[in-house]
Amino acid sequence: MERLKAQFVDDHRADLIQRVSVVMAIADALMSAGIIHREIYSYIQAASTSQGKMRELLDALNTVKAKSDFYDLLKENEPFLVKDLEHQEVLEIEPRPKYAKTLQVQTIKQKTEEKQIRWNKSSKRHSTKVEELVKKNDIKKVENLYFYKDEKYIIGSGGSGTVYIGLSEDGTEVAIKRIIKNPKNNKVFENELKRLRDLKLESENIVRYVTFAEDEDFHYLANQLCESDLEDYMKDLRQQERNDKDNILRKIVKEMLLGLQVLHHAGVIHRDIKPRNVLIDTEGRARLADFGISRKLDEGKTTVYTDRAGTQGWEATEILNQTERSGYKKSSDIQVAGMLVYYILSDGKHPFGDMDREGNIKIGKHSLEHVQDIVAKDLLEWMINKDPAERLTIDEVLRHPYFWDDSSKDAVLRKLGDRPEIQNYETLSKIHNLYIEKEETDPTATLTIYEAFNQLKIDNEKKRNDILAIVGEDLKNLWKLFNTAKDVTEGKTFSNWKSKLSDIWTDINKKLPEDVLGLLRVLRNKLVHANVRNEFEERNIFGLFPDFFISLHRVAKHLNWNY
């Protein structure tokens, strides 16, 4: 009888997740009866939707008895739902006095005919193998999972287990990681399961968890079946002649990084970023996977100390250079993610090479020769810097100009161009030049800012206050502003922007400094006031200065300007 009830729960899993509304009442009774533990109950309680709560609850029902007890409670609390879902004839009703309330339980007539395995078709790449799997007479079933233990159905392997194509009992195509039980693997399995079931990690760029099962010897972790991992995807793409290849690769890069952003926002460090741990789903979307050795930061902490982990050649500089227990930060993930970005954009190359890769990572010796896009190179330089403090955060990575389209560029021009420093840049330049003429270590010692106002005949009180708010009476911010602009402009394509733009626009302000911020002022004014946005495309304005936006990005970061 218990098996029939458990079969009902397995058969209607998807419907139960969508339709059960009294999840917590059932969870309360199950915890009181010792069927689920308090930790599981807390996961159920923390879920933000009834569907999420129900998914957590069903995942915790790992035995026939647990599922049978759940059925009893479901029948009591939602009898009409059970009646609607039951397609079999009701044979009898028996009381179950085990719980505080008297429960009425329906038993179900078992089908005499052979049960057909459900299959919700999704994958194109694996469809033939799944079809063969469904037809197997000796298919292996472990709780709510079907698979066949044969080499032809293996789609992956790693240190902790082998991955098989399979099906969950509700027909969902899954990749089943079979993990042999031992103390080390048990910890890895529990850690990955905890990450996958964390509601904070639910994302279209994180591999989707389906369910898990176990028998005497193995854990079975079932995730969505994806079409390929990144390594195989790159091989397939290499054989195709596509004009949009650059856009495809940029998309994959961004989606992988969005997955990492979800992790980092949840305080999780992945620790094993590599091509095999990025999966491509049936819609061509990249999803970050394999969280067995990931670690969650304690509240308020930025580092987690643990034994060294990861894959050779895909580890951060500081991890390789540590001799004892390793201290992992989010920035460690960033450097390795940068290696992966280069791998994607360079058609499978590694920025630290193939010969003595670890030695090169340790000293920061790298080459970006296989990527031609200077904006992509700038992003990579930030990410793979050997100094963790110099790397971008994941949010900064995704705000980098490499990901900007024309709309984003317009928004940045407006946002930064409206800063008071840029609105007053011509006046600030006059003040700066006045002090430079003094040629003294501390020119303010002989000429105060107020005396500078008088010499330059800046009489407007509001104007004076605006300038003071920017530079301060000690003028330190003035020097920082112009020194930064000078350093960033030197040797760049826009270092002589006046001559290039004079042929296009005869009315540009030639009193502005010929640096990155002077150019920002001109482009912002043209964009906002002159209504010549169409000329930006027609004249390829941004193309004239391909390093302008990455330079502007560096100025904004150095000066702590938000945009």
TrEMBL record:
Q: Which PROSITE patterns match?
A: CARD, PROTEIN_KINASE_ATP, PROTEIN_KINASE_DOM, PROTEIN_KINASE_ST
Q: Name one GO cellular component term.
A: cytosol
A single GO molecular function term of this UniProt record: ATP binding
Enumerate the Gene Ontology biological process terms. Answer: inflammatory response; innate immune response; intrinsic apoptotic signaling pathway in response to endoplasmic reticulum stress; IRE1-mediated unfolded protein response; regulation of apoptotic process
Ordered alphabetically, the record's keywords are: ATP-binding, Cytoplasm, Immunity, Inflammatory response, Innate immunity, Nucleotide-binding
Does the UniProt entry include the keyword ATP-binding? yes
Instruction: Name the principal localization, coarsely classed.
Output: cytoplasm
Can the keyword Nucleotide-binding be found in this entry's annotation?
yes
Domain spans labelled CARD: 1-69
Question: Which residue spans adopt a coiled-coil conformation according to this UniProt entry?
Answer: none
Which annotated residues bind ATP?
A: 181
Residues in domain Protein kinase?
A: 149-403
- Compartment annotation: Cytoplasm, Cytosol
**Protein name in UniProt:** Uncharacterized protein
The species this protein was found in: Culter alburnus (Topmouth culter)
